Amino acid sequence: LCPAEAEALVQALQGSELRDIGGQGWLRQHEYVEKLNMHGILSASTGQEQLLTELLVTHAKIPVLIGELISVEIWKHKIFPVLCRLQDFKPRSTFPIYVVLHHEASIINLLETVFFFKEICESAEDSILDLIDYCHRKLILLAARSTKAQAADPVPPQELQKQAEMMEFEISLKALSVLRFITDQVDSLPLSALTRMLNTHNLPCLLVELVEHCPWSCWEEGKLKKFENGTWHVVPPEDQVKMTKLDGQVWLALLNLLLSPECQSKYRFDGFNKSQLLKLRAFLTDVLIDQLPSLVEMQKFLSYLAVTEPAPPKNDLIIEQVPVIWDHILKKNSGKWEAIAKHQVKHAFSLTEEELKLQARRWAQTYSLDMMEALVPEKPRCRVCGVEAAKRCSRCRNEWYCTR
Fold first, then answer.
1. Alpha-carbon distance values, 75 to 19, 22, 68, 340, 346 (Å)
2. 218 neighbors 147 (Cβ within 8 angstroms)
3. Which residue, among 137, 256, 126, has the nearest Cα to 198 in the 3D structure?
4. How many other CB atoms sit within 10 Å of the CB of residue 244?
5. Contact (Cβ atoms closer than 8 angstroms) between residue 71 and residue 18
6. Which Gene3D superfamilies does this UniProt record tie to the protein (predicted)?
7. What is the SS3 assignment for 310?
8. Distance CA 172, CA 136 (A)
9. In angstroms, what CA-CA distances link 104 with 61, 68, 84, 158, 315?
10. In the chain, where the domains are located
């Protein structure tokens, strides 16, 4: 995108009502987000994402994007179950959730790209509480995720459902990265945000759970598989002790939350929290510390914690803020879930064949193959043998092979 196009798209971003999700205006909004998302990824790959960051801050669009995330999440939990119970909707009940998940994935991916910058975090203002809550809910999904058969091939009749589950998983991993970037800014976060992360949600203990169970890693048929760059890879024996980017995000978030003076003065190091944190000592091997040397400070801190009783946090009188966006949407739409679902069946998810073709053409323009290939972080590999591949399947256009 040229600067003028990027600015026009950023200015066009606006919040959506729950009843509008899936409608034509909402789909146009999704196209804007997706174009900005792809622009952000390509700009970041060349170190030129500063323009997009400045536009989002100047036009105060970070709270808008966070609001879209919360709207989508409430839609999934409140509206979609009602949609599935409507008799005239069941035959195509998986399509809307897939479209909505794609919108959610685009937004969280865009936020992951720009939240590296301090000014983006600051521009979120009070909506940072909603984003922290959102990330917390996604991390709970990760911690509860069963690692059994994560990498199994989808059964054909349930392929769309399997894709939706995989997208949920990837969205949760993006939320982990966003949360880590938020913890990088503990010095400039409002007091209520720190309190929410440390005491309301007890994020340090939740991150310990992720270190223990590592949902992006699993064993299948005696082989270790790890999830990186959107796919599951078999890890050769010599690389099994190598830290992945996701492992690094968890450890960096723990470093930020446990070692900064602001957090140490507010976190409750009671008996339970202390016992959970000390579990980390078993994972702090020399091999791990060699890959992330700052973990030496974590090792020292845990050794100190094991033999001392930290002072309890000060019981200052604090007026705690609540997540504004979540509460506003719930109050505005409470008791209207079924009415909204019926409206969407009629106006959003009952497209004619001509309307479907028009929407397909619009998406084809947004998701051009050349653009998608530019976004791929590594060269494609053969579906059969795993070596670098140059031939794409002419039928499905998804799989790659090294020979005919």
1. 9, 11, 10, 10, 16
2. yes
3. 256
4. 18
5. yes
6. 6.10.140.2220
7. coil
8. 9
9. 16, 8, 20, 21, 38
10. 1-187+322-367, 191-320
Q: How confident is the model at residue 306 (pLDDT cuts 50, 70, 90)?
A: very high
Tell me the whole-structure pTM to 2 decimals: 0.85
Q: What is the pLDDT of residues 198-239, one digit of tens each?
A: 999 999 999 999 999 999 998 888 899 999 888 888 999 888
- Cα separation, 236 vs 16, whole angstroms: 46
Q: Note the pLDDT of residue 148.
A: 43
Question: What are the backbone dihedrals phi and psi of residue 172, each rounded to the nearest 5 degrees, phi first?
Answer: -65, -35
Q: How many Cα atoms sit within 13 Å of 289 on the Cβ side? A: 13
Confidence at 157, pLDDT banded by 50, 70, 90? very low
Judged by DSSP in three states, 249 sits in helix
Written as one letter, the residue type at 329 is I
> Helix 24-45 and helix 94-114: axis angle, to 10°?
40
- Give dist(CA 206, CA 250) in Å, integer: 10
β-sheet bridge partners, residue 401: 391
- Among positive and negative, which fits the CA dihedral 78, 13, 343, 100? negative
Instruction: Look at the block and give the residue holding tokens 């609001």.
Output: 67
CA distance 136 to 132: 6
Q: What is the mean pLDDT of residues 51-77?
A: 94
Question: What whole-number distance in Å separates Cα of residue 21 and Cα of residue 82?
Answer: 14
The phi, psi pair for 259, rounded to 5°, reads -105, -15
Torsion region of 67: left, alpha or beta (phi above 0 gives left; psi -120 to 50 gives alpha): alpha
CA distance linking residue 122 with residue 317, whole number of Å: 24
Name 397's Cβ contacts closer than 8 Å, sequence gap at least 6.
369
Mean pLDDT estimate for the chain: 85
- What does the DSSP 8-state code read for residue 280? G
- If one counts every other C-beta atom within 10 angstroms of the C-beta of residue 40, the result is 23
3-class secondary-structure state, position 226: strand
Alpha-carbon distance of 69 to 165, in angstroms, equals: 17
Burial (CB count within 10 angstroms: exposed 0-12, middle 13-18, buried 19+), residue 380: middle
Counting every residue written for the chain, the total comes to: 404
Task: Tell me the one-letter amino acid at 301.
Answer: F
